[in-house]
Amino acid sequence: MANQNSAPPSASPKNDDDPSQTLTNLQSELSTLNRVSHRLAMTDAGPSLEKVLALLLPRLLQRIGKNDDAKKKNRRSNNKRKMPPSITTNIATGGGGDDVIINQQIDGMHDTIHKKLIEMLGHTMKRVREDRDCKLPCVAILELLIVPPEEEKNNSNTANPFTINLGLAFLTLGINRCTPGECASLLPGLLKFMGCNFNHNDPNNNNDNDDANSIGIGHLLDPSRKIRHDQTWHLILRSLESISHNPTENAASRRRAAAQKSASSVSTTSSSPGKTSDPNNTVASLHDTKHLIASNPILAAALFDLFMDVFLYSPVPASSSLIPNGLSTVGYQRLIGGAASQKTSSSGCKNWKEEFVTRASLRQLKLKFLDLIAPCRRYALFLPEKLNNSVVDGGGSGEDEAASDDGMGISRTVALMVLLTGDTDPDVKSKAESYLRAHMDTYRGKDVPQTGNSTTTTTVHDALLGNSIALAQTMLVLAIGGAASLGIDKKLTSQYKNEMALGIMKTSLGLTYCADSNNATQQKAVLSCSRMKISESSAAPALKFVGKMFDDNPKLFHVGMDMEEGESDIAAVSIGTLVLAVFGDLHRPGSSASLAMESASSVLNSLCIRLSLFYDARVQSGVNVSESMERIRQLLAQSMAQACAVLAPTSSGESTYLANNGTKSSTVQIDQRDKCYGVICTLARSQFALDDRYALFDCGKSNERPGSRPTSAPFPLTTISTATSLFGCASNEVEMLRPRATSALDALLGAYVRVVKFLAEREQIIKMEQISAATPEAVNPWANVSESATVVKEETADVSTEGLSRSLLPLLWNASRRNLPKSSRIAAARWSSELLLCLSNSNAYHLLCFLSGDDDATVSMISKQALEVDKMLGEDNILTQLSPSEIDNTVAVRNRATFSVLMDTIVKSQSSMKKRPKYSDFHVRAQAATLRFLLHSLFSEESFYGDEDGGMALKDFVLTILKTLAFHKGCSLNREETDLIDECSIALASCTSSSKEARLVIVNHEGAASDPRYGYNDIAMQALTSNSSKTRRHLAEVMSHLYEDNLLWDVDSSTEPLSISTWIERSGLSHIAVICREKLHTMSSSFVLGEVHGAAFLGSSCVRAFRLAVAEKTIDEENSNISNCWEQCCGIIALLGKGLAHSDIAIGNACSKAIVIAFSYDGPDAPILNRRLFDAVAIAMDSLNSALKKFSSIDHADPTRVSSLIQAAGLLLAASTSGAGFTKGAASSEDGSSSIDLGPARLQCTEALFGILGSTVYRKDDELSLVVGEALLKYADAFGAGEWSSGSESGWKEGKYDEKYAFELPPHRHVLYTMFQRELLSSNPLKRNACASTFLALIGHASRCANLDPSSVHRAFVQEIWKNLALFQSSFIKLLADPKSKHLSRESCCKGLAACRGLAAAISSSIKVGDESLSQIESLNEQLLKAFGQTTNYGGSIMQETDAQARERREETE
Questions:
Q1: 547 and 575 in contact (C-beta within 8 Å)?
Q2: Residues 6+ apart with CB under 8 A from 1447
Q3: Is the pLDDT assigned to residue 949 strictly greater than 70?
């Protein structure tokens, strides 16, 4: 068939004003259409028909539209030609009637042509449907539907409806027959045509700064426009589906396919129009599409909605009317109403819904669409070309594209991939995750490419996420649903007026719709466009991704505004409100645990971190943006409320069983609560805690703002709702989350402490301002010193803290129960030590004392550290002082209640109905810590100067100790009970040593409500039989204190002094001494170690008390009691001496310490030793000499034991000074030791002490030389002044050391003569090194006495030191210069020189001008200065002064 036979008709009839000519043209056109119709019917199917339709079909579609337009125009012209009634008569008579008839004929001809065109198009449609291989000129048809730009400016109307509707019908049929390249060329036109259907402007809003993605809803209300929009939407969908024909291809497969096509291009080239073998044809076409999307935000948003509808679609049953999650009503109806493809229509599918009813077909479609938008794939549809090239190539600058979408394309791409990561199909999910991972790793280890002339730096977050705010808002709106987000948008819009802020808030990746708020129909249409919230499987990864955005981008909320403006918080408020709405929707009543809820908790945690930083920055900047601060504060308070609501079931114990099941649901709940604990920790550590609404402490509930609260009003912070909830969580939480609950409690505790401190400082400032306003004149700056230094007592505690302390006490006591987990008890201990001590320290100490006996070591240690007894328990020194840093950081030291208040709170019984544990109810560990704490409080400054109760508290304390001892009397004790008895003995010894009232309680039972079961006789017996050496030692000390207070036993209160005999009888000292002597006798045979140990200490206490009591009496009494006591004391001393060398080290040390106790004295001078003790002392001293020689020898060297023996030797020598030189001659002693005399024994003892210096045992411990020096100074300074029967006060005998001469000298001269004339001159370097420390002990004691008490300079020992001070100084210098001097020796020499200087200064202050001593002091100074340069082992000293410096010094001195 010739081509001219099938030529299309003319384009249109000429626009001629002559109706006759118009009619003729129309008749000619109808004739042509008939011929063409005939030829078309005669054309064979196949390539011929396809070629004819390529030319004919577009003209037919164009002609049917123009014919309809001409018909409408002709009818409008007829209406305009209507004549007035006066002319009607002329027409009836024949004038002008021909024109009316012709116009009627023209209308009829138009109808005939229209019918013919419809017939031809119908015939064409029928034949094309039957011939599935026949391709249609889709590009030409599409060009008919789009209005050219020049016509669009003049007329906003689109093409003729007949052309549009029929053209869309043919496009729907032909799109399935197009190649991917042809579909790619159709895509820009289809997008433009879809844009023509939108109503871009809101008729009720003329704001030019409205959202760029906002459109009207006219295309939804007009049925014809809605149908066209739906058809166009499906055409775009089919085009995209055709473009991505192989979703599983990769770069390698594409290269292989291109090579194969290039090799076979000659043989496979098709001559059919529209077909091409160029593999790059698709890419070239998509360039225009991507440019159009980047330059037109409306089309980009519409295309994003299309992809999102496909990605979120899931098949639903045919009988169901439910809308899939994530789709809107309009979108769902539009999606399922589309025609089925040509391939599936043959199998019976009628529409798109039936085509993709199976999971396999839907998976294939989603993979295709994912391939289109993935950044690492071939197309990356939403990414601008420059960004796409950078992503694919890994860098490079490239040429700038004309179109820019401000990062929205990246955001849309990321959003779609994130949504697909929650797809139910594992293949789709896996592929989306891999694409998203590859995109997020694009710039790992690379620099982010910067735009050409941009002044702002592109960050990694901008390059990977684009518009982060829009992305986050879109994800959150999808999670909550479009309908719910409309209310949020309306609420926020009313709070902001700034146009930029409103623009940021309305930023969205998809389309937004505008409607008249007063038009119900339009509002209903807007709601139909709102998406349902996405499924929880899709919401979980979406929310998780949003949370990661919060974590990775610290500047997410920093929008393009001045951050100091009040409305610059728009991003934070908008996103925060959406997050809270999502969290609240997922955690609605009756909801179950899900992965989406876990992700929402993670997002909430990350949001609180960013909001708290934002809030803190606003607070610290000081900018006055109160409205912004209040908005952020409300978000933080709501976050706190949501977190507490999640934790509420755990706090009450309701979810404990479910959490322990180990199911997936329980795991999700654990992760959810973990994030909620993080929320509380974040808020507690921020400035939000200091907000005066205190929402943090009341589970997010904001109190009324206390703006008008008077200064004297109660403490504003009284709520503990959050603390109660967290304590419940710490008790009921699973083991995995208990540390998190504890950390949340710690953070809340820190917040309470900060608030309390802040309020206290504020109240102090207010008070100071009031004082300054009341007394403007100068006031005494010391007036309030005593007031500020006074310790806060319980009854005078600040009333502003009573409310909080009363609220906390029941909570903390309840959390301290032993049946609760240790995390709860740890928290109670920390809260008590750090917070409750600031509010009510007596109650806090009560609770801490109770917790100090907890089974958990951490709880116990925290409590003991707060009580300050952690380093004191078991120690003898009760007055251990804290370091200055500890004092500054310890509230208890500053605000400790008095001892009487503590006794009332901790020990005494209470009358309230709900009784709290008291001391008697405590565990034995807690009782031990409580006793040490109360003892430390008793000796504190607060108790010395604060209590005025007449000693009743002390008496109660002693009674408590006695009751504790009585309770464990005669019982078999474990380790903890033994420690308690040790503390009782230490406390009792401390009290009796300093308080007469304490001794009266023990002896006379004062202060006891009833006769105690434990008296001093029991104390004495327990000192002998106790299993603890510490208890035996301290109880023996208690008895010593009781025995030495003679007035304590004067029960008659007579005016006559108490006699020794009466005192012995009433105290029972003689009886105790007899028992002790009997126990000590057993140590030579079979013995009980504890009894011998106790007998040594208790017996020594008896000896000391009796010896000192007799020494105080001027009249020597004599009776059987006294004689018996002397006998027992002598026996005890002799036995103690014999026990010094005992093979058992415990007995040996006990005997040496007992001798120290027995012969100790309080004054500077040793009491006169009674002659009855000479023999016993001689025996003890002889045994001591033997023990010293034994344990200092090479075979039995024991530094510890020797040190104890040296101390005993010093006291024995000092106490026996009055017996110096005493010998019995031929007389024999009672025990047969006639060869032992006291005088020679003393000299032998001193020689034994000198022998320690440089000995074998000294090599093991060189500090023994200091101990020897202290023992020698006790021997030398036992008597202050007096005349000695032997020796001369003149200088020492000249020549070498003479032992006989030395033994005849007084002790103070004996020691110095021997040290200087023998020891210092020894050839043994070890002995010379030891002399330095011994000299230091001697000179140090003299210097100390002279400086503390000026009268002590007249003591014989000090005077002897002063006479030989030059020798001391020269000896120190010589030893310091000795190359064999050790570290201790050199250090002793340096300190010894300082002591020489101190003694010289003390002496110089007490002498008169012109005294010879002044010249002696000057010579000493000169000697020291000259020799100073020789005191180094390594040459001249750098400290040696030059001649010029010496002259300058002398001039300054003069």
A1: no
A2: none
A3: no
